[in-house]
Write a structure and sequence with these properties.
Elements lengths: L39 H24 L6 H13 L8 H21 L5 H17 L5 H13 L3 H25 L12
Helix pairs in contact: 1-2, 1-6, 2-5, 2-6, 3-4, 3-5, 3-6, 4-5
């Protein structure tokens, strides 16, 4: 066989039909790409709706003279407004996830020293485990457990505020998804 008769590397993998050759499998660390950047109007809509919800929560907290749980709820707002199709962003996960995490936080706070960072880390881990077992995983809820251990808020005032705030975030995301035609519908499911 002569060198001229050998198949060329660029045509050796082409099927006889002339169709392009199938792509080689991707390596695990190169699989997938980040989604396309959202249009400016979409990004503005998501950010403004989330900001409005958080400002509303701060206003309610100021009216009732109770600090609002901003770090976990800000993360929840980011999920429901910017990634409304994710399971972590669905109403069941947002509302019940925070309540389950609050229970975990109060349980750890009952047996651990007040303000212990070690106990706060344990509370976050327990909250994540219980949220997973109850099928209500919501990453920002772990921060709720941490806040409870570090700040020791009174449950009688804190839990109703947490419940109302998480419901308000869900309802705000629901309303925001209906005000713009191109916006993805929220929620993907309620329960």
């Amino acid at each position: 066989m002569s060198i001229d008769a050998a198949p060329r590397p660029d045509t050796a993998s082409e099927p006889a039909s002339g169709a392009p050759a199938p792509r080689a499998p991707r390596l695990p660390w190169t699989a997938g790409r980040a989604p396309a950047r959202p249009a400016p109007a979409t990004a503005f809509h998501s950010v403004s709706a989330a900001t409005a919800a958080l400002l509303g929560l701060v206003g309610i907290g100021a009216l009732i003279h109770e600090p609002v749980l901003i770090p976990p709820l800000a993360a929840s707002a980011a999920l429901v407004h910017c990634a409304p199709a994710l399971p972590l962003a669905q109403p069941r996960n947002v509302v019940l996830g925070h309540l389950v995490a609050a229970a975990a936080g109060y349980a750890v706070a009952a047996v651990a020293p007040h303000g212990s960072a070690w106990a706060a880390a344990v509370a976050a881990g327990i909250a994540l485990a219980v949220n997973t077992l109850t099928r209500t995983p919501h990453a920002p809820a772990c921060a709720t457990a941490v806040v409870i251990v570090l700040q020791a808020p009174a449950p009688g005032r804190f839990v109703p505020l947490l419940f109302g705030a998480s419901v308000l975030l869900v309802l705000t995301a629901f309303a925001a998804s209906r005000t713009r035609r191109a916006a993805p519908r929220y929620p993907a499911y309620w329960w």
